[in-house]
Request: fold
Amino acid sequence: MIRFLVSRFTQGIIVIFAVICVMFVILKSSPGGPFRSERAISPEAMAAKMAHYGLDQPWPVQLWRHLVHYATFDFEESYLFAGRNVDEVIASGFPVSAAIAIPALLIALGFGVPLGALAALRPNTLEDRGSTLAATLGICTPSMVLGPLIAMFFGLKLRWFNTSGWFDTTDWVLPSITLGIIYSAYIARLTRGSLRETLAQEFIRTAKAKGAGDFAIIFRHALKLACLPVLNFLGPAAAGLLTGSFIVETVFQLPGLGQFFIAAAVNNDHALATAISVFYAALIVGFNLLVDILQAWLNPRIRLQA
Amino acid sequence: MNSVSPMRAAWRRLMRQRINAIALGFLALLVLLCVFGPLLSHYTQDQQDLELKAAGPSMAHWLGTDQLGRDIATRILHGGRVSLEVGILATAVASFIGVIYGMVAGLTGMKLDSAMMRLVDILYPFPFINFVILLMVIVGREFWIIFVAIGAVEWLTMARVVRGQVLALKNLEFVTAARASGAGFWHILWKHMLPNVIGTVIIYSSLMVPGVMLLEAALSFLGLGIQPPDASWGVLIREGANAMETYPWLLLYPGLFFSATLLALNILGDGLRDAFDPKSMSQQ
Reply:
């Protein structure tokens, strides 16, 4: 276990290091500096600005400083939001993204797992077809279509919620529902497939033979194994949701991390763009590790390998 | 029993399910419409009829016009062509990289294999969507960049799957026989490995197309992909979403076309998986 954790931690560090380097190469190969859009800036002021951010240094020095910043958790100043360090910018956007992501994940699990389980328990019946159809429709409705439709119905027709902005305490509802519906469709499909496969296995037949009821079979025996693919999907999905869904944040005009990343990319704010990507990568690595540990706990046949 | 080639057998299994045939027929029709429709239409996709601003469906404009008086039906077909092109080309790029990478890693084995797979492990948790967005902003929002950028990041799963297949194949007797008769590395790769992994490649490619189309639509929706006045479905959905309060059909029609296409692609992908891998079918 210790060896496993150490090895995964090292791998995580390598991933973060690689992300920083790749971002550096992509961003440095971009034409025009970070302050090109500001009009009529004198060469002296420009030089002072570049020096302030250390952009007058040679590339290897810049990359080295970059890495030192991340290694010591002493983060750089954002170019776009001057005066704020990138971790402060992330700290202001993350709560918005998380406030949407967490209910969305709960909705996705709350609907997706029962729907998929229902379909798997009654194969080739009306329930199975109905829930499979619903899940397929959910997968085929992109968030850029579903989001505006939900905004139109609940926001503009019924006037229950705001359709854009982050002002009221209920502003998380519509974005969360949009994401929740789409993710529950994926989860329902995964649950159906894996539960069906699990129910066909011999230990389930044994459980049935010794007289276990449907309820006990599912909750005691099958679901433990059947939720492994769902967990596999959930790890990266949760990381993606927590760092902000680009589409849904755009549709509902939310000041989350996705919007900050797009602003950083468009305005050449290399420091912020790198920081958000590193944050995202760190979350993915963290969730994947969590998923691996959970899977080993749920299925003793899986050994944690370094 | 007549001997049937694996390809033909898979095709027969695919067509035995009516839903697969319907999905394939729909896609074929859509491709024909998107390729030839804009040529047959009375309008070009950016031609404006200034008297008709955002009118509903009529005989002259079957699906109506947008605020700039452009024919929606023509724009949807034109946009569909762009979206399908991106979907197919990006998938081709990703499959090409993934198949070569996976076959070389699997067939070489030893140190090179573990190094190549270590690289895939490191790349796997990368925040690729961020990279694609940055590439679009930096390199320019051009058509070819989109599918190269998407293709360059989507090949990892394909590489893993193909490597696994090659590992299972390479110790079989026919490969040993080929090696004994003096076949070189590349010969075995092309003549013996590729034909045996092609079924898997078709399955994974077909499942990749809808994902890639979604990614392109997302980029265009964010204003980072295809640029107006050119159209893709993402662009049309973006324009529709901005105008949906007054002209809901501007969102509904492109949305319906996009969803129907994704649906057909998903059905076909599942159908192909069952057709090429009868084992997965027997479980159902």
